[in-house]
Amino acid sequence: MLRTALTALAATAALVPASGAFADTGGVSLPDFPGTCTAESIASADVACDTGLVEVTLASDGSASWMRETGYPRQAFEDYLTEYAQWTDGLDAYLETELASVELDGAAVDTIVTDDAVRVRITTELAAGEQALVMGIALAEDGDLYTAIDPEQAYEVDVFTITAPGEIVETNGSVQGMTATWTADEIAALDEISLHAEASVPPAVPVWAWFGLGGIGVVLGVAIYFGFMRRAPQRDED
Description:
The protein has 238 residues and is of the alpha+beta class. The protein has helices at residues 2-12, 39-43, 74-83, 91-104, 130-134, 184-188, 207-231, and strands spanning 22-25, 28-31, 51-58, 64-73, 108-113, 117-126, 137-139, 145-149, 159-163, 168-171, 174-176, 179-183, 193-197. The chain contains 7 helices and 13 strands. A 7-stranded mixed sheet has the order 5-6-4-3-9-12-11.
């Protein structure tokens, strides 16, 4: 399970399989699981007993940040390590061993272990060009951003999101603001996770500029008025 997932992530920059739902605990996103999860649940990939999330953040230069989060109920996962993975050195040692190669590969690793859950978040920075292209992210000549991400990169995640630096022009996901979202069921029906977005948000005209433009309008109005008066023919007095 996690051993295979982390090995795959080190090789592809983003594969940590999981599925389920997240709960907010103390300001940190942590998995929330039913009390019925067991080692067998983990081994059989019971969707109620593991959970996953991918968040991709695109930059205007074509680079991207790819974060994958996975979680398991702690006791069930520790039992899984003993019964199925034949690991007897404890959870902390297992995570340290498995995540070491991921960190050496340049990814940032954030692990939280509570009495109830284990959460691992791995973030990989993809440079513009080849690294981003391998993951299906491209910067076009016109400066717009495009994605054609293989659904395999979203293997067994519950939610996959892409946040763009500018307006989303077209996508096969659900859009809210500058973020597109796909659920596991939606991803399963797709050939690719596609998105077309502008590389940046056009600058808004600041409030003071409107006053400035209004002031220019007044000056032009006065100038035109007095210009007309100067050009108007004078009527002869009787």
